[in-house]
Design brief:
Largest sheet: 11 strands, antiparallel
Structural class: mainly beta
Helix content: under 10%
Shape: globular
Distance between the termini: 10 Å
Strand content: over 45%
């Protein structure tokens, strides 16, 4: 039977370097944010040493090709030549010791080279899932870097220097954002050191938005590109226990920006907003007999609006193409690199009484090798996939300005295919009926980004949490629960999907659903 250990990934809850006992460290308290599932307890190789288990170790200094160990008294048992050492200090290290030099009776310098996970683990199978809604990302690559607390998402391009690239006329404004709500999923299976399986996935939501404000006779017209090296990267490191073995994972995200925008206004002032985004899951998996294969799915969401202060004509166009690069490391050994390429283009026009607009977009993912030491002693050169996850229309709609309505009464504004106006469906209310505020969100992913809302699979409607009883067992109340697993017809394809698991007799189910929780023989990660 598979054994699961739910462990919190909070650094302050540990303290291995200060441990004064030979007993394995106690398991931390479970957390809703991060889950570690241990399917087979770790067995280390004969060469493996976990320095933090030595109660006399005071600290470890980590350098590219050496480590410096400091002990609290002479006579410590220092890892010798050929030992494979692993620890979580300073972002983590996994090294093979080449030589040892005594600097003092309590201080030793170890020259090292990078090692692989198979040099550390003889046998292990674990899965690490992270949704760092309340974690912290450290901004790097900029003087005076800061740490940003996450509130479920963050803007990848804070303080974008638009004024340096666009001649913004007085009375005009241009604001662009790329909001990312990431989730991470990685699974490692090493069987007797020879068999190995690896899966690394990046998922969540990415939203691209543009707002343009311009007055009559003046506006915004520019095109610019900012390469990745001119924008700061974000890093997030956490560590956890697999059995009693500490493992550290570092996530690094880097962005780049390309924007084209134009606006013209004949009268008054225009305010135009367009946004488009994607719920996505992409990554790569390695299986011993099958080699590398890509993983990728996507759903879309979007909206737009245009407002004029007085009758006139206006045209606003914008195309935003951010690039997002993600790299995961176990200790200081790299997995494949994932590059997301979302793009969103909005076109809005107004002619005195009415306005109309469309938002189109696309999402591609590139999975490529990273020129660093790979997690396994397996070449990553062959990892080179391009996935076209979506391309097409995201949204279309229109509206009427208040000065054109009968009697001067302001119209409700936007009409599109998402507002069916059916009584009782949470859309446009009938007389005496109060509309559900969650009903304005049309997709599962969009619905679950809003606090207090959940998606009812049976009706296909977004509803307030207070109406959950109306839905029954098809209630989806987290971004990960939105993935449709029903199309995966075999156990093997099902468990390779990061959000799905196999239930004998029922088939492939999303792990976050009530059906999966009620399945007694549910298999989330392997078949058998």
């Amino acid at each position: 039977m598979q054994k699961r250990a739910l462990l919190v990934l909070v650094l302050s809850a540990f303290g291995l370097s200060a441990c004064k006992s030979d007993d394995p460290p106690a398991a931390p308290t479970p957390s809703d944010e991060s889950i570690i599932e241990v399917f087979r307890e770790p067995v280390l190789t004969p060469e493996a040493v976990i320095p933090s288990r030595d109660s006399r170790l005071v600290g470890v200094e980590v350098f590219p090709s050496r480590l410096v160990f400091t002990y609290d008294s002479p006579g410590a048992s220092v890892p010798g030549e050929g030992a494979v050492v692993a620890g979580v200090e300073e972002g983590g290290y996994l090294r093979r010791v080449l030589s040892v030099t005594e600097q003092s009776p309590t201080r030793f310098e170890l020259t090292t080279e990078h090692a692989y996970l198979v040099d550390l683990f003889e046998d292990v199978h674990f899965r690490a899932r992270f949704e760092p809604a309340r974690g912290s990302w450290v901004e790097t690559g900029r003087v005076g870097a800061r740490t940003d607390a996450l509130g479920g998402s963050f803007n990848l391009i804070d303080d974008l220097p638009i004024s340096e690239h666009c001649g913004i006329a007085p009375g005009s404004n241009l604001e662009v954002k790329v909001d990312l709500s990431p989730t991470f999923d990685a699974e490692i299976d090493i069987f007797r050191r020879r068999g190995r399986t690896m899966r690394v996935e990046l998922g969540g939501d990415v939203k691209v938005s543009v707002e343009v404000v311009g007055g009559a006779g003046i506006g915004v017209n520019c095109e610019f590109e900012i390469p990745a090296e001119r924008l700061p990267s974000r890093e997030f490191s956490n560590w956890f226990l697999v059995g009693w073995v500490p493992v550290v994972i570092t996530h690094t995200i880097q962005a780049e920006v390309k924007l084209e925008v134009g606006a013209s206004v004949s009268a008054g002032q225009v305010t135009a907003n367009a946004e488009g985004g994607f719920g996505f899951r992409t990554g790569v998996s390695y299986m011993q007999d099958a080699g590398w294969s890509p993983i990728g799915t996507a759903s879309r969401f979007g909206s737009a609006s245009l407002d004029l202060t007085e009758p006139g004509t206006a045209t606003v166009t914008a195309k935003f193409q951010p690039g997002i690069s993600y790299l995961l490391k176990f200790y200081d050994t790299a997995g494949p690199q994932i590059a997301l390429r979302p793009w969103v283009e909005g076109e809005l026009t107004a002619t005195y009484c009415t306005w109309e607009g469309t938002v189109t977009g696309g999402l591609t993912a590139a999975l490529a090798p990273k020129v660093e030491v790979p997690v396994f002693d397996i070449s990553l050169v062959e990892v080179n996939f391009d996935l076209d996850l979506f391309s097409g229309e995201i949204w279309s709609g229109d509206g009427t300005f208040p000065w054109c309505n009968d009697g001067g009464v302001e119209d409700s504004g936007v009409t599109n295919g998402n507002d069916a106006g059916v009584p009782g469906d949470g859309g446009t209310p009938t007389d005496g009926e109060v509309a559900d505020p969650c009903s304005t969100h049309s997709t599962c992913a969009e619905c679950n980004r809003v606090e207090g809302c959940g998606f009812c699979r049976a009706s296909g409607a977004c509803m307030s949490d207070t109406r959950r009883a109306e839905c029954g067992t098809g209630w989806l109340d987290s971004p990960s629960s939105c993935t449709d697993c029903s199309g995966l017809t075999s156990c093997d394809s099902c468990v390779r999907n990061g959000f799905c698991g196999w239930c004998p007799g029922q088939g492939c189910l999303n792990q976050s659903t009530d059906e999966a929780r009620m399945c007694s023989g549910f298999q989330p990660a392997s078949c058998g």
